[in-house]
Specification:
elongated, five-stranded antiparallel β-sheet, eight-stranded mixed β-sheet, about 450 residues, mainly beta, Immunoglobulin-like, 2 helices
Length: about 450
């Protein structure tokens, strides 16, 4: 039986309606499905994904208003809503709601009733049979670098009000192995929610061979693919340097390892600053499919006039003699020659100009500042002599990290003023000739 209703045309033309309606399935394992098309119907069309219908299942409808539904009529359709078939039995209607017993999947239904303004209106629903995944595969004839499509079968559909077949998007919880830095570990697993109809796109191609486990979020069905053989690459290079003396002036925050070495992971924004001389070790931390890599060292992040360092086997390269002041950047570029996939990462740091900080006071038997020690940055040579008030030398060193404890020949020197002479030269060529009075203070017990 062909039926046609003017209110349906009003819906398609964008007319407003004062009612809110809703369908519900009982004695069924189902979920309501929505996409842009369903939302665009303003509530007059619903879609359910149905995993199972038990005996006595009911499809109910409520107008959401005080409109009685005792005279409601039910229709079914398999093509479009211009070709509705009367349902003459199997449904019950009362003032509050109406329901249809034992509905079928891959079928549409419509409820006709009179709204509060006396207009006859229709609400529609389509029931799609949920189909668990039977196949999730990757096209192995191609190499993927940026994103990875997983082809899904079977494809589920629903019919629009116009009768068009539209694909249902699945939402899958996808788990797989990754090569990423996670609390210091480079090998871990990843789980993310992804949606697609016939294709799921993994946004970042795994750089280790891995199977994918897909678990449907609606009904918990799962499938595990064969191991995906990747040719994508990445790397998490890390730079370490020997620990600096506590007296050395350092700025910014940075991480240290269990040995106290400064650790800087590439790709991080950092305010790391240090002083000359500066020797570093750099570990590539490449993913398994890397077979080409190049190190670059430059004075800025644009890498103009960078010096390439080619290294094919060693995981660690050393870079020493960083005596020039200013910014330094190191970049690693890795690739797989078979796929052409590539990845790069960089880190920058600053070597400070030379500086000397000479304290005015120290207290050998106090809580703090118990030694006279110079703070410094990028100092190449250093001499320090300290004299008492009669001009006798009581301390002499050429080690900038050596401090004076206020003793001379095994005896504590008294509180008083002492004269300090320092000669030094920085790695930047700056010369220092400092003469100043320092105060030794001993606290009373």
């Amino acid at each position: 039986m062909k039926k046609f209703f003017a209110p349906f045309f009003c819906l398609l033309a964008g007319c407003s309606s004062a009612f809110a309606a809703g369908f519900n399935l009982s004695s069924a394992e189902s979920v309501a499905y929505s996409d842009a098309y369903v939302k665009g119907t303003g509530g007059q069309f619903s879609v359910f994904l149905v995993n199972s219908l038990k005996s006595g299942a009911k499809l109910s409808f409520s107008s959401g208003s005080n409109t009685p539904l005792s005279q409601a009529k039910w229709y079914s359709y398999t093509q479009d809503v211009e070709n509705l078939t009367d349902i003459t039995s199997g449904f019950v209607s009362n003032d509050d709601s109406t329901y249809l017993s034992n509905p079928k999947t891959d079928c549409g239904y419509a409820v006709e009733y009179t709204d509060s303004e006396g207009e006859k209106v229709l609400s529609y629903v389509w029931l799609t049979k949920f189909l668990p995944l039977t196949s999730a595969v990757v096209d192995t004839t191609k190499h993927y670098c940026d994103h990875l499509p997983i082809l899904l079968e079977p494809v589920m559909n629903y019919r629009t009000l116009y009768g068009n077949m539209t694909k249902v998007r699945r939402t899958e919880e996808v788990s797989y192995s990754v090569f990423e830095m996670d609390h210091g570990s480079l090998n871990s697993s990843k789980t993310e929610l992804l949606s697609g109809d016939s294709v799921l796109y993994i946004p970042n191609v795994p750089t280790v061979d891995t199977p994918f486990e897909l678990v449907n979020t609606s009904f918990g069905t799962s499938i595990t693919t064969d191991s995906f053989v990747t040719y994508a690459v990445n790397a998490f290079p890390v730079m370490t340097t020997i620990p600096k003396n506590i007296a050395e002036i350092q700025k910014g925050e940075y991480k240290t390892d269990e040995n106290g070495k400064v650790v800087l992971y590439f790709g991080e924004e950092t305010a790391f600053r240090t002083s000359s001389p500066f020797d570093i070790d750099i570990k590539s931390n490449c993913s398994p499919k890397v077979n080409e890599f190049t190190w670059y060292v430059a004075r800025d992040s644009s890498f103009r006039n960078a010096v390439p360092y080619y290294n094919w086997k060693d995981e660690i390269i050393g870079y020493s003699g960083l005596n020039s002041m200013g910014k330094h950047c190191i970049k690693l570029e890795v690739a797989n020659s078979k796929s052409g996939c590539s990845f790069s990462s960089l880190a920058c740091f600053t070597v400070d100009s030379s500086r000397l900080l000479v304290p005015n006071v120290f207290t050998p038997n106090g809580q703090d500042n118990r030694e006279f020690k110079v703070g410094y940055s990028s100092i190449n040579s250093f001499e320090c002599r300290i004299y008492n008030q009669w001009g006798r030398k009581v301390f002499d060193t050429s080690n900038i990290n050596e401090g004076w404890d206020g003793n001379f020949n095994g005896h504590e020197l008294p509180t008083g003023a002492y004269f300090c002479v320092i000669k030094a030269e920085g790695f930047d060529g700056r010369k220092y000739n400092l003469k100043k009075t320092i105060n030794l203070i001993r606290t009373k017990d």
